[in-house]
Please model this.
Amino acid sequence: MKKLKIGVLALQGAVSEHIEALERTMKKLGLKGKVLAVRKTEDLNEISGLVIPGGESTTINRLMLETKISEKIIELAGQGLPILATCAGAILLAKEGDEQIKKTGTILLGLLEMKILRNAFGRQVNSFETEIKIPELGKRPFRAVFIRAPAVEKVWGETKVWAKYKNKIIGAKKGNVLALTFHPELTSDLRIHEYFIKMAVDFPR
Ligand code: GLN
Model:
């Protein structure tokens, strides 16, 4: 059985929570391997999947530019590397941002054809948890944690809606790239990490 290496972009944000969730998921699935904290371009070389965590999109973006890691992520995504981006990570994957994002000068990776709205649910006080239905995960609802969360205004091209809450798009996917505006790493439900790890298992490395 191949040894799986999954990377978590570790520049800023909810890094350790994702590492823990991935480790627990690998154990649950009986997979051998490890989870690496990705800090520089070379760390991306051997991984079969990359998580871009939530945090502060402006800070992660600045550090990504400083480390020149963005270009390599775009290149690997084009080669089919599975990517799971959550919250601030989802902002960074978009092709288009709202006025707030434009004002910060954030340079988006443009991997998903979607327009994303920063703080779409309001400020910190409006962080909340709720049950959502995600068709790909089956009938049992998923408890989603939203923290100053973005939302997707629209998707186009090959990018498809993956999850919705009320009238807002909160998940979008195009092939190997999945973006979620909530935090699946903050609950004990491992179904999203499981879904992602199964994508990584199929990625030839
Ligand atoms: N609002 C934050 C940002 O714009 C994202 C919040 C989060 O990742 N929890 O970067």
